[in-house]
Amino acid sequence: MAQGMVKSKADTVSLSRFEFAQKETHNGSDCICSITNTSRANIATTVLTGAPDAIRLDSTAAFNGTHSLKPGQQVIAVGNFEGNKITVLNLSLMGVVILVMLFCPG
After folding, report:
1. Does the structure show a pLDDT above 60 at 1?
2. What pTM was estimated for this model as a whole?
């Protein structure tokens, strides 16, 4: 193991239909946000808010807004969230569960 390396676990939560998670980010540090549709058959619908306009999911779609994830699909956003409070809401039909991981060092 490299000198000075620290092992830790990022904040991770499973969200059922109509559940949400919020996290205060740290200004000036790059955060990583991962959202995964755990279903093997159904589409997940998520609403994401709080990120600066420059933050993108998979370097394409804006972070803020409504997103549909195919079964098993994962999207990732990386960047400085500028100390904003990030909200992830599961608005999926059926019983789709999404897995949300948010890591903001500092």
Report:
1. no
2. 0.89
